[in-house]
Amino acid sequence: MRHPALPVVSGLAGLALSTLTIFTTAAPATAQTTHHSIRYASVDACRIKDGTEVPCHTWRLDLLDGRRVALKDAMLWPIDAKGKVDKSTSAPLTVSGDGESVAYFRKSDHRLVVREFHGGVLKGVRVMPKTPLPRGVGMDSVWLDMSQDGGRLALLYTDEHGATHGRLFDVARAAATGTIPKSDGFSGFSADGSAVLLPRDAGANTTGLSVHDLTGAELTGAVPPQIVANNGPWALAADGRTVAFVTGSGKKAALRFYDVRTDQTGGSVPIALPKDVSPDTVDWTGEHEVTVHVSDYERARDVVTVLTIDTRTGTTRVRDRYKVRPGVYTYQSCGG
Q: Which domain holds residue 46?
């Protein structure tokens, strides 16, 4: 789940512990205590003299096995369009879906970097090409996103008109592959990291979806029916055409599918979600598996539940459930 770099605020209601009985085959506790990958990254909040909360200390990585690792070389505060440090918000950072990579701007030289994280140990840094932003765009207008396996990285920013632009990178080669055209946002990489899904303004108050390769070239696009357009977030499968999304909540929830290439809605499978809760993120994490994150706000802390859904049967299990540490300014969960 990729939360924007904003203070944590009240999340979606209705995810009480008792409601988790609607899910089947909850993941065994041992699976969460032997795995060393990243669960989420976070920055602490400190209150200043005027009563405002601002990010402080350093980015930290909370692991599935319960440990916490400081990411000391990551920038805490971004540089604004005038070249000044903006201490009112946190610098961009993201975690890959598999929890094995983290991308951020390095404190020493402000370069965009990716670090792999294996066996509970931070590995070497891959430094991306210099990424000068257009005049008038600061790092505080930037956000980052990674593919499920951490092999692809997107640097995204909004211009003065609110439109989204971005650059795409091959992490292993530490090379830029292309740019994405102006859009209304960024819905993420395909399951295999070979393409990206973009929402776009289709006019007449409608939303289009387009698929682009890693150079930014459009592969296919369509203006989907309202049942698709009104029910983001969307996730793109490895085939580069099948989009998964969720409609409804509680016992009326369903995982649905849409083909961008043919502009046709496909089948659907009923699933069970807590009442009045919508997904924060949807990700393809297997040929027949979609992972959904939902969150609730409980006693000043976000509670995140990670659900895996069989796309053929709708069988849903709780893969993980955790409370974000208290006193957090912002956090970035792994995606799938």
A: 17-333
- Give me the pLDDT at residue 142, please: 96
Q: The domain that contains 137 carries what CATH number?
A: 2.120.10
What pLDDT is stored for residue 36 in this prediction? 73
User: How far is Cα of residue 63 from the mean position of the Cα atoms in its chain?
Assistant: 17
| Residue 4: burial class (beta carbons within 10 Å; 0-12, 13-18, 19+) | exposed
Residue 253 lies in a domain: yes
Would residue 2 count as lying in a domain?
no
Residues of the chain with pLDDT under 50: 1-34
pTM for this structure? Answer: 0.88
In a domain, 307, yes or no: yes
For the segment 70-83, what is each residue's pLDDT rounded down to a tens digit?
999 999 999 999 99
Peptide bond into 129 cis (omega under 30): no
Q: How far apart are CA 306 and CA 181, in angstroms?
A: 32
Query: Among all chains, which residue has been given the structure tokens 């609607």?
Result: 22
Category of 73 on φ-ψ map: left (φ > 0), alpha (ψ -120 to 50) or beta? alpha
Q: How many domains does the chain have?
A: 1
